[in-house]
Design goal:
The structure holds two protein chains of two kinds. By secondary structure, chain A is an alpha/beta fold. Chain A folds into two domains: 181 residues, Rossmann fold, CATH 3.40.50.970; 129 residues, Rossmann fold (3-Layer(aba) Sandwich), CATH 3.40.50.920. Chain A is built from eleven helices and 14 strands. Chain A is globular. By secondary structure, chain B is of the alpha/beta class. In chain B, strands 2-1-3-4-8-7 form a six-stranded parallel β-sheet, sandwiched between helices. Chain B has a two-stranded antiparallel sheet with strand order 5-6. The chains are: A alpha/beta, B alpha/beta. At the A-B interface, helix 3 and helix 10 of A face helix 12 of B. Thiamine diphosphate sits at the interface of chains B and A.
Chain lengths: 325, 316
């Protein structure tokens, strides 16, 4: 095992796939310098400008180029620097990328990966801090992955390039300085296979991306109070490992989801809905959706810190659930 | 521009520069939450355009690099400083920040975190001015990087087709983050604007006389004929893309600072060194004072978030 950050692991995975498969190419802004977060480090030097394509600030056209190239036998990795910028190219995402395989009756494949970054916590303000994977996940035809560590970020990228559907990988900036262990081979990571990171008998807690360490910290504290929290990282949002979540809820009878995405009509709501519909009879308490408030991300440090869910909020929600007999 | 005007503009440019230096110091001291994009090098273009504008009826939108526009529009420096520091006593009370300066009204409409996002908004302001029939115009400031956005090109066409009193000011500082201007655009931007059907000029943004002549002419033309026009101003980016950036990619040689250049012109025109020195000291002192004043403002209480969540339709 090697300690790696997410950008390091992604860069290494890109080196490996680009060396192995001439169909893979990278396109986006500021790639020559290694990408603004370093996830393209050394690629331009090694593979040249034909395969590491620096673009003007024209997200609509270079995402569309990626889609058309994927429909023409290439395997594009399109970098959208921040997921907030998906707004600029949303037609290409929501209509062009998402619908082509369906509209072809399944005859056209799009082995297209859109890598983007997300997350609050660094004072970047409302238009550089969103976590809008729920928006992407609401579009039928897109696959959505939210890695919580370096091995998953790299492995999901590899898997995504072999699949028929366009995949958006949301990497959380708040995790970029954290080194996590990864097999240097960076093996592919399957989609739709959740990871149970901690066993517990009392509550099932699903946590996404940067919320995973928050969930684990809360679970630690609650264990000292005799409450067993089972922490599940879904790894991908679509496909979703509903079996793993429902099996855990069948065991614990309580469900909470910890999600930096939308407070309203987002992934948290979707998971609560799933659990209520499919595991109603196992539930001993009302499920909890722990999200930021329904506002854009505020700028001031005190406000941004209060906006982000923390372990204390998770603990309070779970303690309340435990009282709810 | 009269010599007095030139001197006054130099004072404002020096203040803008001193303000940005104070932003940088505050950022280094951990008093600014995130990344800041400073406007060093483009002061004369901003102030030259504002010199032609009328606070009662014109409106301006800007990019992520817009502290200077907020100041040029006359917003109190301590308010801009407090906004950049995320404090109360600011424009938003700590919600917006450096890339999202959104005043309640007035000449400056706002800066923008999305490259090019501000340009269509200026078309809206131009449309409103035309509807009101008050002779007002709108100005969109954006970089040569932003000029490659579909939304910007669509707005250029829309402004022509609808006949909007809109001045496009493309501040070409040679760089879009690490992307050189040559790699951004395949053809000169002014000729592109002409192909869209509008009058376009290109100036050296470090030459106040040239900036003044071009903006005077373009603004009066737009006010008269109600049609959009395009100004490209070549400037140099004095600092990094953002403050503290490692500019490893940057190969352009030593830059001439437009403020030094204007200073030399003023000296030649007979302004005394003592006078210039006094202006420079004053700029420095006012910038420091703005940040000292802003630093006295508290951060807002997080309970504001719950109020906003309810306001915006959140269910809890
Ligand atoms: C839609 C979008 N794409 C990319 C970015 C990231 N970004 C911020 S500023 C910038 C460069 C902008 O260059 P230019 O328009 O020339 O303005 P300058 O920074 O030189 O003032 C980039 C790529 C963004 N904020 N929004």
């Amino acid at each position: 095992m090697k300690q790696m950050t997410i950008p390091q692991a992604v860069a290494e995975a890109l080196h490996q796939v680009m060396a192995a498969d001439p169909a893979v190419f990278l396109i986006g802004e500021d790639l020559a310098m290694g990408g603004v977060f370093g996830a393209a480090k050394g690629l331009k030097e090694r593979f040249g400008p034909a395969r590491v394509v620096d673009t003007p600030i024209s997200e609509t056209s270079f995402l569309g180029l990626g889609i058309g190239a994927a429909m023409s036998g290439m395997k594009p990795v399109v970098e959208i620097m921040f997921c907030d910028f998906l707004g600029v190219c949303f037609d290409q995402l929501m209509n062009q990328a998402a619908k082509m395989r369906f509209l072809s009756g399944g005859t056209v494949s799009l082995p297209l990966v859109i890598r983007t970054t997300m997350g609050a916590g660094d004072g970047s303000g409302a238009m550089h801090s969103q976590s809008n994977y729920g928006l992407a996940a609401s579009v039928a035809g897109l696959r959505v992955a939210c890695p919580s560590n370096s091995a998953d970020a790299a492995g999901l990228l590899k898997t995504a390039l072999e699949g028929p559907d366009p995949v958006v990988i949301f990497e959380h900036k708040g995790l970029f300085d954290v080194e996590t262990p990864a097999d240097p081979e960076l093996p592919p990571v399957p989609f739709g296979k959740a990871r149970t990171l901690r066993q517990g008998a009392d509550v099932t807690l699903v946590a996404i991306a940067a919320m995973v360490p928050v969930a684990l910290a809360a679970a630690d504290h609650l264990a000292k109070r005799g409450i067993g929290v089972e922490v599940i990282d879904p790894v991908t949002i679509n496909p979703l490992d509903r079996e793993a979540i429902l099996a855990s809820v069948a065991k614990t009878g309580r469900f909470a989801v910890l999600d930096e995405g939308a407070a309203f009509a987002g992934v948290a709501d979707a998971l609560v809905s799933l659990v209520v519909r499919e595991a109603f009879r196992s539930l001993k308490a009302a499920p909890a959706a722990i999200t930021p408030p329904h506002t854009p991300v505020p700028y001031a440090p005190a406000l941004e810190a209060a906006w982000l869910p923390d372990a204390a909020r998770v603990e309070a929600a779970i303690l309340k659930m435990m009282e709810d007999v | 521009m009269t010599p007095d005007d030139q001197l006054a503009l130099y004072a404002r440019a020096r203040f803008a520069r001193a303000f940005e230096a104070a932003v940088a110091r505050a950022r280094d001291a951990g008093e600014v939450p995130g990344v800041v994009h400073l406007n060093g090098g483009q002061e004369l273009v901003e102030l030259g355009v504002f010199h032609q504008l009328d606070g009662a009826r014109d409106r301006v939108t800007g990019s992520h690099r817009s502290h200077g526009l907020a100041l040029a529009a006359g917003i109190a420096p301590a308010i801009v400083a407090a906004e950049i520091m995320g404090r109360t006593g600011s424009l938003s009370g700590g919600l917006g920040g450096t890339q999202h300066l959104v005043p309640a009204g007035g000449l400056f409409m706002g800066s923008n975190g999305i490259v090019g996002g501000q340009v269509p908004l200026a078309a809206g302001a131009a449309f409103a001015a035309r509807s009101k029939g008050n002779g007002g115009i709108a100005v969109a400031f954006f970089g040569e990087g932003a000029a490659q956005q579909g939304g910007v090109m669509e707005t250029m066409n829309l402004a022509i087709v609808l006949g909007l009193p809109l001045l496009f000011v493309c501040v070409n500082n040679g760089w879009a983050q690490s992307t050189g201007a040559d790699a951004s655009a395949g053809a000169p931007l002014a000729s592109r604007a002409r192909a869209f059907g509008m009058h376009a000029e290109s100036v050296d943004g470090g030459d106040l006389g040239a900036v003044d002549a071009a903006t005077r002419h373009l603004v009066s033309q737009i006010r008269t004929n109600g049609q959009p026009a395009f100004l490209e101003a070549h400037v140099s980016r004095v600092g990094g893309h953002y403050h503290g950036e490692d500019q490893g990619y940057r190969k352009d040689g030593k830059l001439t600072d437009p403020l030094d250049r204007l200073r030399a012109t003023l000296v030649e025109a007979g302004v005394t060194a003592a006078n210039l020195h006094r202006i420079e000291e004053e700029a420095e002192a006012r910038a420091r004072a703005a940040f000292e004043e802003a630093a006295l403002e508290p951060m807002d209480d997080p309970s504001t978030l719950a109020l906003w969540a309810r306001d915006l339709g959140g269910l809890t």
